[in-house]
Design a protein that fits this description.
CATH superfamily: Nucleoside Triphosphate Pyrophosphohydrolase
Largest sheet: 8 strands, mixed
CATH topology: Nucleoside Triphosphate Pyrophosphohydrolase
Order of helices and strands: EEEHEEEEHEEEEHEEEH
Helix content: 10-25%
Radius of gyration: 17 Å
Strand content: 25-35%
CATH class: Alpha Beta
């Protein structure tokens, strides 16, 4: 998002905070234990093949309604797109993340995929995700390769996040915009796609209601909320693809 974005399309933006410490909320034990993915599924070639195939799959059931954002006629929302950026390393595929600067109005200090709102000048969500990634991380768009997209996710702050799966080709340089981004880092895809690392939390809110969210920890990083939900959904997609694409 641009430096001078201090107001939304519907008026002045307010500082949004969750109202609880996401790292300290109780973890809910789910009855169904999900299987690990075959190592072959975590290869770039397989992922590219999967998105060029017809894969029948279901979104994360905990947030099935939130993943219907593409089909619902929603009012007072901010359309946004994020890049799910895959990076090839010697040890395997990694995923690139940003940690947002602490002074920002939305999701300050949180771990996020690079991305932001879809502007009127963007031809589509893909263009928005690539533009925002370049602006936030400094990675030139010439290194970004589109692979596919997944269902949009409606966040608690009334954004609809459209995940664009992409590959960052070798040779890129990271030069983050320090106004928006405090840090750029990578996490192994194998860690993110291991359901043993996914925790489901229930947070009791001050108003008396509650909120569910997933989290994934990596070293000192705590990935939670919409970003973790998109990761969880990607796991479900690859799991389904493994049964229909792996042996093609």
């Amino acid at each position: 998002m641009s430096r001078n974005e201090q107001s939304s399309r519907s008026g002045t933006r307010r500082l949004v905070v969750p109202g609880f410490d996401p790292e300290k909320q109780p973890v809910i034990t789910t009855s169904k234990r999900l299987p690990a993915l075959d190592e072959r599924v975590l290869q770039l070639g397989f992922i590219q093949k999967a998105f060029n195939s017809s894969v029948r799959w279901n979104v994360e059931p905990v947030f099935s309604r939130s993943f219907q954002a593409d089909d619902l006629q929603l009012a007072n929302i901010v359309p946004a797109a994020v890049l799910f950026p895959l990076v090839q390393r010697e040890s395997g595929l990694h995923v690139l993340f940003t940690r947002r600067a602490s002074h920002l109005y939305d999701h300050a200090g949180q771990i996020c995929f690079p991305g932001g709102r879809i502007e009127d000048t963007d031809p589509d969500a893909i263009a928005a995700a690539l533009r925002e990634t370049e602006e936030e991380t400094g990675i030139s768009r010439k290194y970004m390769e589109y692979i596919g997209s997944q269902p949009s996710f409606l966040t608690s702050t009334r954004f609809t996040m459209k995940p664009i799966i992409g590959y960052i080709k070798p040779g890129f340089e990271v030069r983050p915009d320090s106004f928006e981004v405090a840090e750029v880092f990578e996490v192994p895809l194998s860690h993110l796609m291991n359901p043993e690392h996914h925790s489901l939390h229930r947070a009791n809110l001050p108003a008396g209601d509650h909120r569910f969210y997933f989290s994934i920890s990596w070293q000192s990083y705590f990935i939670w909320g919409a970003t973790a939900a998109l990761i969880r959904n990607f796991y479900h997609y690859l799991k389904a693809a493994s049964t229909t694409v792996l042996d093609q």
